[in-house]
Design brief:
mitochondrion inner membrane; COA8; elongated; mitochondrion; 147 residues; mainly alpha
């Protein structure tokens, strides 16, 4: 982002995780509480990035293995006569999706628990930052009204 920017910047989707990375704006006079909030947001982003990159990599690999094994069982190759990649029908792929989700249920439950914990912490810190800013604004306004 340009040096004069005062906002977070959101990039294009990552090729592994499909998440859009965020470059967080750091104000020049960032308070300790604001820094804690920004760092909590950065940690949540990094954690999400790690989880979804691993998850998507495993998904793609297992999907390819599933397709290969099903095509092989049918006596087919990965590519047809015209060079097009061979595919399975929706019902066969539904079997894969169901099995993959069932096999990864515990990982998803743990991810969701962690996600809620992180977001609760972020929300709590955001509330604290908003309260501090509101009190600061009220003190500034009271001071300026008295003058």
């Amino acid at each position: 982002p340009p040096a004069h920017s005062h906002r977070d910047w959101i990039g294009p989707p990552d090729r592994l995780s499909n998440l859009r990375p965020v470059i967080f704006y750091v104000p020049p006079e960032e308070s300790a509480l604001e820094r804690r909030l920004r760092e909590a947001r950065q940690e949540a982003q990094a954690s999400n990035q790690r989880f979804w990159a691993r998850h998507n990599r495993a998904f793609r690999q297992e999907k390819e293995e599933f397709i290969y094994s099903r095509l092989k069982a049918k006596g087919l190759e990965m590519r047809d006569e015209s060079g097009q990649k061979a595919t399975l029908n929706a019902e066969e792929m539904a079997d894969f999706y169901k099995d993959f989700l069932s096999k990864n249920l515990k990982k998803h439950l743990q991810y969701n628990r962690d996600w809620y914990k992180r977001n609760f912490r972020i929300t709590f810190l955001m509330g604290q930052v908003a309260l501090v800013r509101a009190l600061r604004w009220l003190r500034w306004r009271k001071k300026n009204v008295q003058q």
